[in-house]
Write a structure and sequence with these properties.
Structural class: mainly alpha
Largest sheet: none
Shape: flat
Radius of gyration: 17 Å
Strand content: under 5%
Distance between the termini: 34 Å
Number of strands: 0
Length: 149
């Protein structure tokens, strides 16, 4: 198992080192470039989701999950799934202030970009983090332990 874990770690580092942004992002985008760029970005997103699942549910390593969520957020800045994941993990780690700040940044991004607010699910998570006692939040990483919906 430890050999497999070391291999996963090396491959993960290699993926992040290789990914330097969208495929041919500095070129004027034609249809085939956009399709290829989206395909590669989707593959990377799926790999990150798999790693989040692996490190969270199977290993309980929230710090690695947080790092992966941050990388995923760079790929998809408007993803509420990643915002909620980051909020949950930070709250579970005892960093309520950062969890609430993530929501505020998400809300600001949505407001400025689209003139909308975060979804009810994300807002409900924010309210829960804001009002819960820390001992409730300590058990509350979306991938390590199921969260309140």
């Amino acid at each position: 198992l430890e050999q497999n874990l070391a291999l996963i770690e090396r491959k993960t580092r290699a993926i992040f080192e290789l990914y330097q942004g969208s495929f041919l992002e500095k070129e004027s985008q034609t249809g085939w470039m956009l399709a290829q760029s989206d395909r590669l970005k989707n593959k990377l997103s799926r790999a990150i989701r798999g790693l989040i699942h692996f490190y969270g549910q199977q290993r309980g390593e929230c710090q690695k999950v947080i790092s992966l969520y941050q990388r995923a957020k760079e790929l998809e800045p408007y993803s509420e799934e990643y915002c909620r994941g980051l909020m949950s993990c930070h709250a579970a780690q005892g960093n309520r202030v950062e969890a609430l700040a993530i929501f505020e940044r998400c809300a600001q991004l949505f407001s400025e970009g689209f003139g909308i607010s975060p979804s009810e699910k994300t807002t409900r998570l924010y309210q829960h983090i804001k009002s819960a006692r820390q001992e409730q939040l300590n058990r509350f990483c979306e991938h390590c332990v199921p969260i309140v919906n």
